[in-house]
Amino acid sequence: MVTIVDVARVAGVSKSTVSRVLDERLPRSQNATAERVRKAAAELGYVRDPLASGLRRVGTSTIGVVVPHLTDTVMAMFYEEIAAAATARGLFAVVASTNDDPDTERVAVESLVRRRVDGLILTTARIDTPIPLGPLGDSLPHVLALRTNDTSFASLGDDRLGAHLATRHLLDLGHRRIGLVRGPGYASTARNREAGYRDALTEAGVPVDETLLAGDSFTMQSGEIAGRALLDRADRPTAIFAVNDNNAIGVMAVAHALGLSVPDDLSLVGYNDIPVVSRLPVPMTTIRVPFAQIATAALELLNEASADGVPRTVTAAPTLIPRRSATAPR
């Protein structure tokens, strides 16, 4: 895709100059600079992105991105994909972190609105809960990403499918006692991944043992606590699916502390495919989420939101990445 960055480089002008010259809503300039910009755009085959122009509510070309934690590798990875997709469209992405707290989120949104962002992408949605946009953000186009509240525009990974793939993989290896490390109950990602786990077991004719479900957060610490509850018992599971790679790393730490070998004593599957899991002493089987695809779709949905379109959800399919942490039970 040819962007205004490319046109600006060839014409020897700034991005803002290119944007101004090529904006059909403004009077057509006939000076030498404008002609040079139009010539460069024509030679490169530049086509103006309707998203970049459609969002120009106040003309800052800035998208606000709201995340629970930037220390969370998943959120950092996703923000980078949003920033890259925005740059390709002549937009700039700025991020705010909320500590996954609705009150802090409201303050963060108001701060972004005061900075005159043209739209918001939020990864902080809670199931069946309105987005805390506050009075300043009510009229601002916004799209949910990764998580949904089931009512707004949303760009998601297919978490139910991903969890089904993970659990089906363990079942195909021969496991029948498969534990689940869950995430927070308010997150659609956790809800849908648990549903996918249950789907796979039910389809295989394996009863869901509710005592093999533990956990309530997407952190390593939560994974350790859940892992201890599942593994420090006589009838421990032979495999565990953790709905987040951080949870899985916590489970792996507990297994090591208990003298259990992964995968000889315990098979383990995570979710998201953050970079570190392929470089662990035992590389981890996980579900890869197409963050770039989700980011691009979120930006495209912003255009629909800015035009007051009917809210809809776009879903991207994940992929199972088999590695050494999951094998047949010994």
UniProtKB/TrEMBL annotation:
CDD domains: HTH_LacI, PBP1_LacI-like. SUPFAM superfamilies: lambda repressor-like DNA-binding domains, Periplasmic binding protein-like I. The keyword Lyase does not apply. GO terms for molecular function: DNA binding. SMART domains: HTH_LACI. The keyword Transcription regulation applies. InterPro entries: HTH_LacI, LacI/GalR-like_sensor, Lambda_DNA-bd_dom_sf, Peripla_BP_I. Residues 2-57 form the HTH lacI-type domain. This is LacI family DNA-binding transcriptional regulator.
